[in-house]
Design brief:
- The complex is a heterotrimer.
- Chain A has six helices and five strands, in the order αααβαβαβαββ.
- In chain A, α2 packs antiparallel against α6 and α3 (41-49) crosses α6.
- The longest helix of chain A is centred in the last third of the chain and has 16 residues, at 140-155.
- In chain A, the strands form two sheets. Chain A has a three-stranded parallel sheet with strand order 1-2-3. Chain A has a two-stranded antiparallel ribbon with strand order 4-5.
- Chain A starts with a helix and ends in a 17-residue tail after the last strand.
- By secondary structure, chain A is of the alpha/beta class.
- Chain B folds into two domains: 1-85, no CATH class; 91-143.
- By secondary structure, chain C is of the alpha/beta class.
- Chain C has helices spanning 4-14, 41-50, 142-153, 195-202; strands at 20-23, 33-36, 58-67, 70-82, 85-97, 100-109, 114-122, 131-133, 156-158.
- Chain C has a five-stranded mixed sheet with strand order 1-2-7-6-3, with helices on one face. In chain C, strands 4-5 form a two-stranded antiparallel ribbon.
- The radius of gyration of chain C is 25 Å and the shape is flat.
- The chains are: A alpha/beta, B mainly alpha, C alpha/beta.
- At the A-C interface, loops of A face α4 of C.
- The complex binds iron/sulfur cluster (SF4).
- Residues 39-41, 77-78, 104-106, 111-112, 136-137 of chain A line the site of iron/sulfur cluster (SF4).
- The site of iron/sulfur cluster has 12 residues of chain A, from α5.
Amino acid sequence: MDVGLRSELQRHGIFVTTLEELYNWGRSNSLWPLGFGLACCAIEMIAASMARYDLARFGAEVFRPSPRQADLMIVAGTVTKKMAPQVVRLYNQMAEPKYVIAMGACAISGGPFKQGYNVLKGIDRYIPVDVHIPGCPPRPEALIHALMTLQQRIAAESLVGPNRPRHLRRDQPGEFPVPEYGSHDLIPPKNESIWRPPVIVRSG
Amino acid sequence: MLCLLDSDEVARLASVGLVLSHIGMDGGSTEYLTLGIFLVAACLFALMPLGLARLWAWRFAPTKPGPVKNSIYECGLESQGDAWRPFKSAYYLYAIVFLVFDVEIVFLLPFAVAFGGLPLGAVLAMMLFVLLVVEGLLWAWAKGVLRWS
Amino acid sequence: MESTETIRLRILEAVPGALLEVVPNGAPVGQPSLLVDPEHALAVARFLRDAPGLQFDYCSNVTGVDWLDREEEEIVRDRVAETGGEKKIEEPRKRVRPGYLEVVYHLYSMALRHGPLVLRLRTGNRTDRVRLPSLTPIWRSCEFQEREVYDLFGVVFEGHPDLRRILMWEGFQDYPMRKDYVEPDDYEYEPTPHDDVWEKARRHYPAPTVGSGGETSGNPGS
Ligand code: SF4
Protein backbone atom coordinates (compact mmCIF):
# COMPACT_ATOMS: atom_id res chain seq x y z
CA MET A 1 0.00 0.00 0.00
CA ASP A 2 1.08 3.49 -0.75
CA VAL A 3 2.85 5.02 2.22
CA GLY A 4 1.32 8.45 1.68
CA LEU A 5 -2.21 7.13 1.59
CA ARG A 6 -1.52 5.07 4.62
CA SER A 7 -0.33 7.96 6.74
CA GLU A 8 -3.20 10.02 5.45
CA LEU A 9 -5.64 7.38 6.58
CA GLN A 10 -3.80 7.09 9.86
CA ARG A 11 -4.36 10.75 10.52
CA HIS A 12 -8.05 10.13 10.27
CA GLY A 13 -7.83 7.33 12.74
CA ILE A 14 -7.91 4.47 10.27
CA PHE A 15 -5.09 1.99 10.59
CA VAL A 16 -4.45 -0.35 7.73
CA THR A 17 -2.04 -3.22 7.76
CA THR A 18 -1.26 -6.33 5.85
CA LEU A 19 -1.49 -9.88 7.03
CA GLU A 20 2.25 -10.17 6.59
CA GLU A 21 2.95 -7.19 8.78
CA LEU A 22 0.60 -8.40 11.45
CA TYR A 23 2.15 -11.84 11.40
CA ASN A 24 5.71 -10.56 11.55
CA TRP A 25 4.79 -8.05 14.23
CA GLY A 26 3.45 -10.82 16.39
CA ARG A 27 6.41 -13.08 15.80
CA SER A 28 9.11 -10.49 16.29
CA ASN A 29 7.66 -9.38 19.59
CA SER A 30 7.40 -12.79 21.11
CA LEU A 31 10.80 -14.34 20.49
CA TRP A 32 11.23 -17.05 23.05
CA PRO A 33 14.86 -17.96 23.61
CA LEU A 34 16.05 -21.41 24.48
CA GLY A 35 17.35 -21.30 28.02
CA PHE A 36 20.92 -22.49 27.92
CA GLY A 37 24.29 -20.89 28.42
CA LEU A 38 27.73 -22.25 27.72
CA ALA A 39 30.21 -20.00 29.49
CA CYS A 40 30.80 -16.55 30.93
CA CYS A 41 28.67 -14.82 28.26
CA ALA A 42 25.65 -16.62 29.66
CA ILE A 43 25.99 -14.51 32.80
CA GLU A 44 25.47 -11.40 30.69
CA MET A 45 22.52 -13.07 29.04
CA ILE A 46 21.02 -13.78 32.44
CA ALA A 47 21.69 -10.19 33.48
CA ALA A 48 19.94 -8.98 30.34
CA SER A 49 16.84 -10.97 31.21
CA MET A 50 16.71 -9.68 34.78
CA ALA A 51 15.06 -6.54 36.06
CA ARG A 52 17.85 -4.07 35.40
CA TYR A 53 18.08 -4.62 31.65
CA ASP A 54 14.67 -6.22 31.36
CA LEU A 55 14.57 -8.21 28.17
CA ALA A 56 10.85 -8.59 28.87
CA ARG A 57 10.31 -5.19 27.28
CA PHE A 58 11.00 -6.85 23.95
CA GLY A 59 8.94 -9.93 24.58
CA ALA A 60 11.95 -12.20 24.86
CA GLU A 61 12.09 -12.98 28.54
CA VAL A 62 10.39 -16.36 28.34
CA PHE A 63 13.43 -18.62 28.39
CA ARG A 64 12.09 -22.02 27.44
CA PRO A 65 13.51 -25.18 28.92
CA SER A 66 12.65 -27.21 25.85
CA PRO A 67 13.66 -26.56 22.24
CA ARG A 68 10.17 -27.48 21.07
CA GLN A 69 8.82 -24.23 22.50
CA ALA A 70 11.70 -21.93 21.65
CA ASP A 71 12.28 -19.98 18.50
CA LEU A 72 15.50 -18.19 19.31
CA MET A 73 18.78 -19.82 20.21
CA ILE A 74 21.24 -17.52 21.97
CA VAL A 75 24.58 -19.29 21.75
CA ALA A 76 26.07 -17.53 24.76
CA GLY A 77 29.58 -18.67 25.42
CA THR A 78 32.39 -20.94 24.38
CA VAL A 79 31.32 -23.79 22.15
CA THR A 80 33.77 -26.57 22.85
CA LYS A 81 34.15 -29.30 20.32
CA LYS A 82 32.66 -31.71 22.80
CA MET A 83 29.59 -29.49 23.15
CA ALA A 84 29.12 -28.62 19.47
CA PRO A 85 27.11 -31.75 18.49
CA GLN A 86 24.72 -31.09 21.36
CA VAL A 87 24.22 -27.47 20.28
CA VAL A 88 23.53 -28.53 16.70
CA ARG A 89 21.14 -31.22 17.88
CA LEU A 90 19.27 -28.70 20.04
CA TYR A 91 19.04 -26.37 17.08
CA ASN A 92 17.66 -29.18 14.96
CA GLN A 93 15.05 -29.99 17.55
CA MET A 94 13.68 -26.46 17.60
CA ALA A 95 10.52 -25.83 15.65
CA GLU A 96 10.58 -23.56 12.61
CA PRO A 97 10.89 -20.62 12.31
CA LYS A 98 14.06 -20.49 14.37
CA TYR A 99 16.76 -17.89 14.70
CA VAL A 100 20.25 -17.91 16.15
CA ILE A 101 22.17 -15.15 17.90
CA ALA A 102 25.86 -15.92 18.36
CA MET A 103 26.81 -13.99 21.47
CA GLY A 104 30.41 -13.13 22.24
CA ALA A 105 33.78 -13.63 20.67
CA CYS A 106 33.78 -17.34 21.52
CA ALA A 107 30.54 -18.17 19.79
CA ILE A 108 31.37 -16.21 16.67
CA SER A 109 34.99 -17.24 16.20
CA GLY A 110 36.44 -19.16 19.13
CA GLY A 111 37.47 -15.92 20.79
CA PRO A 112 40.36 -16.10 23.24
CA PHE A 113 40.47 -19.88 22.82
CA LYS A 114 40.65 -19.75 19.05
CA GLN A 115 44.01 -21.43 18.88
CA GLY A 116 43.20 -23.99 21.52
CA TYR A 117 42.73 -27.66 20.90
CA ASN A 118 39.15 -27.99 22.01
CA VAL A 119 37.15 -24.93 20.99
CA LEU A 120 35.05 -24.65 17.89
CA LYS A 121 36.00 -21.62 15.85
CA GLY A 122 32.53 -20.21 15.55
CA ILE A 123 29.17 -21.92 15.78
CA ASP A 124 28.35 -20.69 12.28
CA ARG A 125 30.44 -23.56 10.98
CA TYR A 126 27.48 -25.82 11.69
CA ILE A 127 24.30 -23.78 12.00
CA PRO A 128 23.18 -20.60 10.26
CA VAL A 129 23.62 -17.58 12.51
CA ASP A 130 21.37 -14.55 12.06
CA VAL A 131 23.06 -12.02 14.32
CA HIS A 132 26.62 -11.99 15.61
CA ILE A 133 27.50 -9.95 18.71
CA PRO A 134 31.20 -9.25 19.20
CA GLY A 135 32.58 -8.66 22.66
CA CYS A 136 34.11 -10.60 25.50
CA PRO A 137 31.58 -10.60 27.01
CA PRO A 138 29.16 -8.31 25.19
CA ARG A 139 27.24 -6.08 27.54
CA PRO A 140 23.54 -6.77 28.09
CA GLU A 141 22.82 -3.72 25.95
CA ALA A 142 24.62 -5.42 23.10
CA LEU A 143 22.38 -8.45 23.47
CA ILE A 144 19.35 -6.20 23.48
CA HIS A 145 20.70 -4.50 20.37
CA ALA A 146 21.13 -7.88 18.72
CA LEU A 147 17.60 -8.79 19.64
CA MET A 148 16.29 -5.57 18.14
CA THR A 149 18.32 -6.19 15.00
CA LEU A 150 16.77 -9.61 14.77
CA GLN A 151 13.31 -8.13 15.29
CA GLN A 152 13.91 -5.74 12.42
CA ARG A 153 15.02 -8.60 10.23
CA ILE A 154 11.93 -10.60 11.10
CA ALA A 155 9.69 -7.60 10.47
CA ALA A 156 11.21 -7.28 7.00
CA GLU A 157 10.63 -10.92 6.06
CA SER A 158 8.13 -11.55 3.31
CA LEU A 159 5.73 -14.45 3.35
CA VAL A 160 5.66 -15.05 -0.37
CA GLY A 161 7.96 -14.55 -3.28
CA PRO A 162 11.48 -15.62 -4.04
CA ASN A 163 12.89 -13.71 -1.08
CA ARG A 164 11.06 -15.78 1.46
CA PRO A 165 13.14 -16.69 4.49
CA ARG A 166 14.60 -20.13 4.83
CA HIS A 167 11.89 -21.62 6.99
CA LEU A 168 9.17 -20.88 4.45
CA ARG A 169 10.90 -22.69 1.63
CA ARG A 170 10.25 -26.31 1.15
CA ASP A 171 13.59 -26.89 -0.54
CA GLN A 172 15.64 -25.56 2.36
CA PRO A 173 16.58 -28.03 5.08
CA GLY A 174 15.00 -27.82 8.52
CA GLU A 175 17.89 -29.56 10.21
CA PHE A 176 21.60 -29.64 9.73
CA PRO A 177 23.97 -32.57 10.02
CA VAL A 178 25.19 -33.17 13.55
CA PRO A 179 28.98 -33.55 13.61
CA GLU A 180 30.44 -36.77 14.95
CA TYR A 181 33.32 -37.18 17.36
CA GLY A 182 36.37 -38.20 15.36
CA SER A 183 39.76 -39.38 16.51
CA HIS A 184 41.38 -35.96 16.09
CA ASP A 185 38.57 -33.50 15.40
CA LEU A 186 34.88 -33.30 14.75
CA ILE A 187 33.78 -34.98 11.56
CA PRO A 188 33.09 -33.04 9.43
CA PRO A 189 35.01 -30.06 10.82
CA LYS A 190 32.55 -27.67 9.18
CA ASN A 191 29.36 -27.70 7.16
CA GLU A 192 30.51 -26.47 3.77
CA SER A 193 26.97 -25.81 2.59
CA ILE A 194 26.32 -23.06 5.13
CA TRP A 195 29.77 -21.84 6.13
CA ARG A 196 31.57 -20.12 3.36
CA PRO A 197 34.37 -17.97 4.73
CA PRO A 198 35.34 -15.04 2.60
CA VAL A 199 38.39 -15.92 0.59
CA ILE A 200 41.34 -13.90 1.80
CA VAL A 201 43.95 -13.40 -0.84
CA ARG A 202 47.17 -12.00 0.43
CA SER A 203 50.49 -11.72 -1.19
CA GLY A 204 53.49 -13.13 0.58
CA MET B 1 -18.36 -25.91 25.76
CA LEU B 2 -20.35 -22.78 26.32
CA CYS B 3 -17.80 -21.58 28.71
CA LEU B 4 -15.56 -20.83 25.74
CA LEU B 5 -17.76 -17.87 24.86
CA ASP B 6 -17.48 -14.62 26.69
CA SER B 7 -20.56 -12.90 27.98
CA ASP B 8 -20.92 -10.49 25.04
CA GLU B 9 -20.86 -13.35 22.64
CA VAL B 10 -23.46 -15.23 24.60
CA ALA B 11 -25.76 -12.22 24.59
CA ARG B 12 -25.37 -11.71 20.86
CA LEU B 13 -25.90 -15.34 20.03
CA ALA B 14 -28.89 -15.46 22.33
CA SER B 15 -30.50 -12.53 20.55
CA VAL B 16 -29.85 -14.17 17.17
CA GLY B 17 -31.43 -17.33 18.51
CA LEU B 18 -34.45 -15.43 19.76
CA VAL B 19 -34.94 -13.69 16.42
CA LEU B 20 -34.64 -16.98 14.59
CA SER B 21 -37.05 -18.63 16.94
CA HIS B 22 -39.60 -15.88 16.30
CA ILE B 23 -39.21 -16.17 12.56
CA GLY B 24 -39.33 -19.90 12.62
CA MET B 25 -41.80 -22.20 14.11
CA ASP B 26 -43.48 -21.28 17.31
CA GLY B 27 -44.48 -23.57 20.06
CA GLY B 28 -42.55 -25.98 22.22
CA SER B 29 -39.63 -26.77 19.91
CA THR B 30 -38.23 -23.20 19.84
CA GLU B 31 -36.22 -23.60 23.00
CA TYR B 32 -34.52 -26.60 21.50
CA LEU B 33 -33.73 -24.65 18.33
CA THR B 34 -31.98 -22.00 20.42
CA LEU B 35 -30.01 -24.69 22.12
CA GLY B 36 -29.07 -26.22 18.79
CA ILE B 37 -27.83 -22.91 17.45
CA PHE B 38 -25.81 -22.41 20.58
CA LEU B 39 -24.27 -25.81 20.13
CA VAL B 40 -23.27 -25.21 16.52
CA ALA B 41 -21.92 -21.75 17.29
CA ALA B 42 -19.91 -23.06 20.20
CA CYS B 43 -18.43 -25.83 18.12
CA LEU B 44 -17.53 -23.42 15.35
CA PHE B 45 -16.00 -21.03 17.83
CA ALA B 46 -13.79 -23.74 19.20
CA LEU B 47 -12.85 -25.35 15.91
CA MET B 48 -12.39 -22.29 13.73
CA PRO B 49 -9.11 -21.08 15.26
CA LEU B 50 -7.73 -24.57 14.96
CA GLY B 51 -8.83 -24.74 11.35
CA LEU B 52 -7.39 -21.34 10.59
CA ALA B 53 -4.11 -22.27 12.20
CA ARG B 54 -4.05 -25.44 10.15
CA LEU B 55 -4.73 -23.48 7.00
CA TRP B 56 -2.01 -21.00 7.82
CA ALA B 57 0.45 -23.77 8.52
CA TRP B 58 -0.37 -25.51 5.28
CA ARG B 59 0.05 -22.35 3.27
CA PHE B 60 2.88 -20.53 5.03
CA ALA B 61 4.75 -22.90 7.30
CA PRO B 62 5.96 -26.02 5.57
CA THR B 63 6.63 -28.80 8.03
CA LYS B 64 10.11 -30.18 7.83
CA PRO B 65 10.27 -33.29 9.92
CA GLY B 66 13.57 -35.09 10.24
CA PRO B 67 15.13 -37.87 12.25
CA VAL B 68 16.97 -35.53 14.62
CA LYS B 69 14.11 -33.06 14.90
CA ASN B 70 11.62 -35.73 15.78
CA SER B 71 13.90 -37.56 18.16
CA ILE B 72 13.32 -37.51 21.89
CA TYR B 73 14.57 -34.36 23.56
CA GLU B 74 17.24 -35.17 26.08
CA CYS B 75 19.09 -31.90 26.63
CA GLY B 76 20.73 -32.22 23.24
CA LEU B 77 22.31 -35.56 23.97
CA GLU B 78 21.49 -38.59 21.98
CA SER B 79 18.55 -40.15 23.78
CA GLN B 80 19.00 -43.50 25.45
CA GLY B 81 16.05 -45.78 24.97
CA ASP B 82 12.41 -44.88 24.78
CA ALA B 83 10.45 -42.05 26.37
CA TRP B 84 7.60 -44.43 27.29
CA ARG B 85 8.99 -45.97 30.40
CA PRO B 86 7.36 -46.48 33.77
CA PHE B 87 8.05 -43.97 36.48
CA LYS B 88 8.22 -44.72 40.14
CA SER B 89 4.77 -44.49 41.67
CA ALA B 90 6.15 -42.51 44.60
CA TYR B 91 6.28 -39.51 42.26
CA TYR B 92 2.49 -39.53 41.99
CA LEU B 93 1.96 -39.76 45.72
CA TYR B 94 4.28 -36.83 46.17
CA ALA B 95 2.38 -34.91 43.53
CA ILE B 96 -0.93 -35.60 45.24
CA VAL B 97 0.33 -34.51 48.65
CA PHE B 98 1.72 -31.39 47.05
CA LEU B 99 -1.60 -30.72 45.34
CA VAL B 100 -3.46 -30.97 48.64
CA PHE B 101 -1.39 -28.18 50.09
CA ASP B 102 -1.59 -26.18 46.90
CA VAL B 103 -5.36 -26.20 47.08
CA GLU B 104 -5.30 -25.47 50.75
CA ILE B 105 -3.50 -22.18 50.07
CA VAL B 106 -6.37 -21.14 47.79
CA PHE B 107 -8.72 -21.33 50.75
CA LEU B 108 -6.35 -20.13 53.42
CA LEU B 109 -5.34 -16.93 51.69
CA PRO B 110 -8.81 -15.31 51.44
CA PHE B 111 -9.48 -16.59 54.93
CA ALA B 112 -6.42 -14.82 56.25
CA VAL B 113 -7.33 -11.62 54.42
CA ALA B 114 -10.85 -11.55 55.82
CA PHE B 115 -9.83 -12.88 59.19
CA GLY B 116 -10.73 -9.77 61.17
CA GLY B 117 -14.38 -9.71 60.22
CA LEU B 118 -15.18 -13.39 60.46
CA PRO B 119 -17.67 -14.87 62.88
CA LEU B 120 -16.61 -17.66 65.21
CA GLY B 121 -18.40 -20.24 63.08
CA ALA B 122 -16.26 -19.47 60.04
CA VAL B 123 -13.08 -19.77 62.08
CA LEU B 124 -14.18 -23.11 63.44
CA ALA B 125 -15.05 -24.30 59.93
CA MET B 126 -11.62 -23.29 58.72
CA MET B 127 -9.93 -25.02 61.63
CA LEU B 128 -11.83 -28.14 60.73
CA PHE B 129 -10.65 -27.85 57.15
CA VAL B 130 -7.03 -27.42 58.21
CA LEU B 131 -7.41 -30.30 60.58
CA LEU B 132 -8.63 -32.52 57.74
CA VAL B 133 -5.64 -31.56 55.63
CA VAL B 134 -3.24 -32.16 58.50
CA GLU B 135 -4.86 -35.50 59.08
CA GLY B 136 -4.25 -36.34 55.44
CA LEU B 137 -0.62 -35.39 55.84
CA LEU B 138 -0.29 -37.48 58.99
CA TRP B 139 -1.83 -40.40 57.19
CA ALA B 140 0.61 -40.03 54.32
CA TRP B 141 3.43 -39.72 56.79
CA ALA B 142 2.37 -42.82 58.67
CA LYS B 143 2.12 -44.72 55.40
CA GLY B 144 5.73 -43.79 54.67
CA VAL B 145 4.91 -41.78 51.55
CA LEU B 146 7.26 -38.99 52.58
CA ARG B 147 10.18 -41.35 52.83
CA TRP B 148 12.13 -41.74 49.61
CA SER B 149 13.67 -45.13 49.40
CA MET C 1 56.51 -27.17 58.24
CA GLU C 2 59.76 -29.02 58.14
CA SER C 3 62.05 -28.31 55.25
CA THR C 4 61.83 -30.51 52.20
CA GLU C 5 65.25 -31.95 53.03
CA THR C 6 64.20 -33.09 56.52
CA ILE C 7 61.00 -34.50 55.11
CA ARG C 8 63.12 -36.44 52.65
CA LEU C 9 65.19 -37.88 55.47
CA ARG C 10 62.10 -38.81 57.43
CA ILE C 11 60.65 -40.59 54.43
CA LEU C 12 63.88 -42.48 53.88
CA GLU C 13 63.67 -43.71 57.44
CA ALA C 14 60.09 -44.87 57.05
CA VAL C 15 60.22 -46.16 53.49
CA PRO C 16 63.59 -47.79 53.05
CA GLY C 17 64.75 -48.07 49.49
CA ALA C 18 62.80 -45.11 48.20
CA LEU C 19 64.69 -43.02 45.69
CA LEU C 20 64.09 -39.43 46.61
CA GLU C 21 65.62 -36.31 45.26
CA VAL C 22 65.04 -32.72 46.24
CA VAL C 23 64.65 -30.66 43.08
CA PRO C 24 65.64 -27.07 43.75
CA ASN C 25 63.62 -24.26 42.30
CA GLY C 26 65.44 -21.29 40.88
CA ALA C 27 62.40 -19.04 40.80
CA PRO C 28 61.97 -16.28 43.40
CA VAL C 29 59.58 -18.40 45.47
CA GLY C 30 62.33 -20.98 45.85
CA GLN C 31 59.87 -23.75 46.59
CA PRO C 32 61.81 -27.02 46.26
CA SER C 33 60.01 -30.16 45.27
CA LEU C 34 60.47 -33.82 46.02
CA LEU C 35 61.08 -36.23 43.18
CA VAL C 36 59.77 -39.68 44.08
CA ASP C 37 60.37 -42.90 42.22
CA PRO C 38 57.20 -44.58 40.95
CA GLU C 39 57.78 -47.89 42.77
CA HIS C 40 57.67 -46.32 46.21
CA ALA C 41 55.32 -43.46 45.41
CA LEU C 42 52.30 -45.05 47.03
CA ALA C 43 54.14 -45.88 50.24
CA VAL C 44 55.70 -42.41 50.36
CA ALA C 45 52.30 -40.81 49.83
CA ARG C 46 50.75 -42.88 52.57
CA PHE C 47 53.55 -41.93 54.92
CA LEU C 48 53.16 -38.24 54.09
CA ARG C 49 49.46 -38.40 54.77
CA ASP C 50 49.69 -40.29 58.07
CA ALA C 51 52.99 -39.32 59.64
CA PRO C 52 52.57 -37.20 62.74
CA GLY C 53 53.89 -33.71 62.22
CA LEU C 54 53.35 -33.92 58.47
CA GLN C 55 49.76 -35.06 57.96
CA PHE C 56 49.39 -33.90 54.39
CA ASP C 57 45.72 -34.77 54.24
CA TYR C 58 44.78 -32.65 51.25
CA CYS C 59 46.03 -32.84 47.69
CA SER C 60 44.96 -29.57 46.18
CA ASN C 61 46.34 -29.84 42.70
CA VAL C 62 47.59 -32.44 40.27
CA THR C 63 49.13 -31.31 37.06
CA GLY C 64 51.31 -32.61 34.28
CA VAL C 65 54.42 -31.38 32.58
CA ASP C 66 55.72 -32.57 29.28
CA TRP C 67 59.51 -32.57 28.94
CA LEU C 68 60.72 -33.08 25.42
CA ASP C 69 63.98 -34.73 24.53
CA ARG C 70 66.63 -32.20 25.32
CA GLU C 71 70.07 -31.75 24.01
CA GLU C 72 72.45 -30.90 26.75
CA GLU C 73 75.90 -29.68 26.29
CA GLU C 74 78.40 -30.75 28.81
CA ILE C 75 82.01 -29.90 28.96
CA VAL C 76 84.26 -32.84 29.48
CA ARG C 77 87.51 -32.03 31.16
CA ASP C 78 90.32 -34.39 30.60
CA ARG C 79 94.00 -34.57 31.04
CA VAL C 80 96.00 -35.91 28.22
CA ALA C 81 99.57 -36.96 28.59
CA GLU C 82 101.76 -35.14 26.19
CA THR C 83 105.35 -34.88 25.52
CA GLY C 84 106.84 -32.67 28.14
CA GLY C 85 104.02 -32.85 30.61
CA GLU C 86 100.26 -32.94 30.76
CA LYS C 87 97.70 -30.91 28.93
CA LYS C 88 94.27 -30.08 30.02
CA ILE C 89 91.69 -30.27 27.33
CA GLU C 90 88.10 -29.24 27.50
CA GLU C 91 85.85 -30.55 24.86
CA PRO C 92 82.17 -29.85 24.66
CA ARG C 93 80.11 -32.97 24.18
CA LYS C 94 76.47 -33.13 23.24
CA ARG C 95 74.19 -35.52 25.02
CA VAL C 96 70.53 -36.13 24.39
CA ARG C 97 68.55 -36.34 27.57
CA PRO C 98 65.43 -38.36 26.78
CA GLY C 99 62.14 -36.68 27.45
CA TYR C 100 59.58 -37.78 29.98
CA LEU C 101 56.22 -36.84 31.40
CA GLU C 102 56.04 -35.50 34.88
CA VAL C 103 53.08 -35.40 37.23
CA VAL C 104 53.18 -32.81 39.99
CA TYR C 105 51.14 -33.05 43.19
CA HIS C 106 50.64 -30.14 45.56
CA LEU C 107 50.00 -31.30 49.10
CA TYR C 108 48.66 -29.35 52.03
CA SER C 109 47.80 -30.23 55.59
CA MET C 110 44.41 -29.04 56.71
CA ALA C 111 44.96 -30.41 60.19
CA LEU C 112 48.30 -28.70 60.81
CA ARG C 113 47.75 -25.83 58.37
CA HIS C 114 50.95 -26.08 56.48
CA GLY C 115 52.05 -26.70 52.95
CA PRO C 116 52.52 -26.92 50.15
CA LEU C 117 54.77 -29.85 49.62
CA VAL C 118 55.35 -30.51 45.95
CA LEU C 119 55.75 -34.10 44.78
CA ARG C 120 56.98 -35.03 41.34
CA LEU C 121 56.60 -38.34 39.60
CA ARG C 122 58.34 -39.03 36.33
CA THR C 123 57.57 -41.57 33.64
CA GLY C 124 60.27 -43.56 31.89
CA ASN C 125 59.78 -41.86 28.55
CA ARG C 126 57.07 -40.18 26.52
CA THR C 127 55.87 -43.12 24.46
CA ASP C 128 55.57 -46.59 25.95
CA ARG C 129 56.72 -46.32 29.55
CA VAL C 130 54.07 -43.89 30.69
CA ARG C 131 52.61 -45.81 33.60
CA LEU C 132 52.64 -44.28 37.06
CA PRO C 133 50.92 -45.34 40.27
CA SER C 134 47.71 -43.47 40.99
CA LEU C 135 47.59 -41.61 44.27
CA THR C 136 43.77 -41.59 44.28
CA PRO C 137 43.66 -44.32 46.96
CA ILE C 138 45.53 -41.91 49.25
CA TRP C 139 43.89 -38.63 48.31
CA ARG C 140 40.40 -38.84 46.84
CA SER C 141 40.74 -35.37 45.33
CA CYS C 142 43.26 -36.73 42.84
CA GLU C 143 40.64 -38.72 40.98
CA PHE C 144 39.39 -36.16 38.47
CA GLN C 145 42.72 -34.40 38.20
CA GLU C 146 44.54 -37.61 37.39
CA ARG C 147 41.89 -38.29 34.78
CA GLU C 148 42.65 -34.88 33.36
CA VAL C 149 46.38 -35.60 33.26
CA TYR C 150 45.58 -38.89 31.56
CA ASP C 151 43.34 -37.12 29.09
CA LEU C 152 45.68 -34.31 28.17
CA PHE C 153 49.15 -35.85 28.65
CA GLY C 154 48.57 -39.56 28.28
CA VAL C 155 49.99 -40.67 31.61
CA VAL C 156 48.38 -43.99 32.55
CA PHE C 157 47.66 -44.20 36.27
CA GLU C 158 47.71 -47.70 37.69
CA GLY C 159 45.22 -48.30 40.45
CA HIS C 160 42.95 -45.46 39.43
CA PRO C 161 39.32 -46.45 40.03
CA ASP C 162 37.88 -44.93 36.86
CA LEU C 163 40.49 -43.93 34.32
CA ARG C 164 38.61 -42.41 31.40
CA ARG C 165 38.99 -39.24 29.41
CA ILE C 166 37.34 -36.35 31.18
CA LEU C 167 37.55 -33.29 28.92
CA MET C 168 37.88 -34.76 25.46
CA TRP C 169 35.50 -37.38 24.15
CA GLU C 170 35.98 -41.12 24.15
CA GLY C 171 37.68 -42.09 20.93
CA PHE C 172 39.86 -39.00 20.79
CA GLN C 173 43.38 -40.16 20.16
CA ASP C 174 45.81 -37.33 20.76
CA TYR C 175 47.05 -35.85 23.99
CA PRO C 176 46.48 -32.15 23.41
CA MET C 177 48.74 -30.71 26.10
CA ARG C 178 51.83 -32.51 24.88
CA LYS C 179 54.25 -30.16 23.28
CA ASP C 180 54.35 -32.06 20.01
CA TYR C 181 50.57 -32.14 19.60
CA VAL C 182 49.53 -31.25 16.09
CA GLU C 183 46.18 -29.54 16.14
CA PRO C 184 43.66 -30.03 13.36
CA ASP C 185 44.01 -27.46 10.64
CA ASP C 186 40.98 -25.20 10.79
CA TYR C 187 42.63 -21.91 9.96
CA GLU C 188 40.59 -21.26 6.83
CA TYR C 189 39.35 -17.93 8.04
CA GLU C 190 41.80 -15.80 9.95
CA PRO C 191 41.11 -12.11 9.46
CA THR C 192 44.05 -10.99 11.58
CA PRO C 193 46.67 -13.74 11.61
CA HIS C 194 50.00 -13.25 13.29
CA ASP C 195 53.13 -15.23 14.12
CA ASP C 196 52.68 -18.96 13.68
CA VAL C 197 48.98 -18.55 12.98
CA TRP C 198 50.04 -16.57 9.96
CA GLU C 199 51.95 -19.59 8.69
CA LYS C 200 49.00 -21.91 9.29
CA ALA C 201 46.50 -19.53 7.70
CA ARG C 202 48.70 -19.01 4.69
CA ARG C 203 48.30 -22.59 3.62
CA HIS C 204 44.65 -21.79 2.93
CA TYR C 205 45.26 -18.74 0.83
CA PRO C 206 44.83 -19.16 -2.86
CA ALA C 207 48.09 -18.77 -4.71
CA PRO C 208 48.61 -15.14 -5.68
CA THR C 209 48.23 -14.71 -9.38
CA VAL C 210 51.48 -13.71 -11.00
CA GLY C 211 51.62 -10.15 -12.22
CA SER C 212 48.38 -9.05 -10.61
CA GLY C 213 50.23 -6.46 -8.60
CA GLY C 214 50.15 -8.22 -5.27
CA GLU C 215 47.71 -6.75 -2.79
CA THR C 216 44.10 -7.69 -3.10
CA SER C 217 42.81 -7.38 0.39
CA GLY C 218 43.94 -6.99 3.95
CA ASN C 219 47.32 -6.81 5.56
CA PRO C 220 48.99 -4.13 3.54
CA GLY C 221 52.71 -4.14 3.38
CA SER C 222 53.31 -7.78 4.15
S1 SF4 D 1 33.45 -14.31 24.59
FE1 SF4 D 1 34.57 -13.90 26.48
S2 SF4 D 1 32.95 -13.70 28.02
FE2 SF4 D 1 32.04 -14.72 26.26
S3 SF4 D 1 32.23 -16.89 26.65
FE3 SF4 D 1 34.01 -16.28 25.48
S4 SF4 D 1 35.57 -15.82 27.01
FE4 SF4 D 1 33.61 -15.83 28.06
